[in-house]
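Case study 2.
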Amino acid sequence: MSNDFIDQIMGFNPSALDAFQEKPASNYDANIYKTNPIKFAKSDDGVYRSRIKIIYNPKNIQKSIVHQAHYSMADQNGFFIVRSKIGNGDRSCPVFNAWKKLWFSKDPADKEWAKENFEKNESDWVIIQVLEDINQPELVGKFLFWKLPKAINVKMAAKMHPSPESKKTPVPIMDYLIGNALELVVQPGPDDPTNPQRKQREISYDLAEFETDFSPITKTDGSPLFEDEEIEVIDTFVTAKNDVAKAKTDMKRNQAMQTIQDITPQLKDLYRKAMQYLDENLKLDLEAECGFQEWDERTAKRVKDWIDTVLAHKDPKTENVNEENPLLQNQSAAPAAAPGPAKVEADISQQIMNDVMNTPAPAAASAPVDNDLPF
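Prediction:
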């Protein structure tokens, strides 16, 4: 034993153990936009108001809305959560198949046991940029993950993926240049002395609305990314695009289409500028950090032990049918660490231009199953 260790241990303050220190927020948690009005609202009426821009995923535009499914479990090591590949539509998830085996059993006791032990939640995730926020001004300009509330998901779907019967043109809400900002209004539930949980449980996003004018991305310090003359180029394009849709004569329509053709090279330069900025400053990986990742070996074993124990109608919090004396490790069963950010795809500008020119935008995912509450 070294003298340095002896010097350290002599007079060591036991309160200084890491276990007793406040744990910093994880990078994942720190990168989530939280709009709970009860915790964060600074207004007198307790309503959380901000202005944000939901953007396309620069690493994979088709995966700009990532669906997540996870199961909550508890065993002898404690509570843990695992994400399921069923969030990707892959029904080979062993947890899902274990639930299905019990749920569709002819024995009513199996179905009741499934109700008691399986807890699945689903949600949809996007990347946003905070444009204005008096509640958390330090977040202005930052790119963050956001768990889409059901009400916002429905509004996005109505604009980006309208029904054929409506004959409406899809609106590129998430576009870096011509997309629309969201005026976010988050209302707390009612004050009900007889049922205090309503204030948190009935938080509402119903009054939030997408703006009608375009709002380009900004720099991460909140300052404009584009100069005034570049904004004029975007405005000219948007005006011409609207004129094409509204023109009542072929002449006006052809004039607007010619304007679009003439200005498209400049617009592409602005997309390149936006994507270069995102490549250098947006370090989030939506699919890796919010979607499903294959379980590591330890997590896979822990899940298998939990499943086998539940299928045997044993309580996994007190038993493990695969081990007589399981070693308690008290470690998180989170999925393996996400890989580092990938470089922006070289041809993504063409994908975005296709969308701008009215190629159908990616459909919003189906409404999440879990409750519509912020973090």
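The longest strand covers residues 119-133.
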